[in-house]
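User: I'm putting together a teaching handout on how sequence relates to shape, and I'd like one worked example. Could you take DUF1761 domain-containing protein from Luteimonas terricola, show the sequence you're using, and then write out its predicted structure as tokens right after it?

Assistant: Happy to. First the sequence, then the structure tokens directly below it.
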Amino acid sequence: MNIWIVLAAAASSFLVGGLWYSPALFGKVWTVENGSQMAAGHPAKVFGVSFAFSLVAAAAFAVLVGPSPGLEASVKLGALTGIGLVAASYGINYQFAQRSLKLWLIDGGYHAVQFLLFGVVFGLWG
């Protein structure tokens, strides 16, 4: 496993997440759909733990995609993982929790983009 690819993928995910959940994109709607409840906690801890989870996700993707994946195969695996596994799993939980479709589209959509981006990073680098 190439740690530099994992770090690049995790960083790309983290940067996209910052934009995705910012007021410029979906941050305001996300806050409303969550009942205007923001998670409490020190920002350094929140961002640090979030980046650690991005590293875990990127490392897991590295195992799935294998060494030297082609761009097409890597992007397809990213779509399958992000949409078919992560977003679909969120959908199950959100249905039982009675969360809105908008919230699922925002959160599931982020993870779909996250793993598609992983596919691009791994496919271009590998």
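A couple of points you could highlight for students: Residues 3-125 form one domain. The chain has a mean pLDDT of 92.
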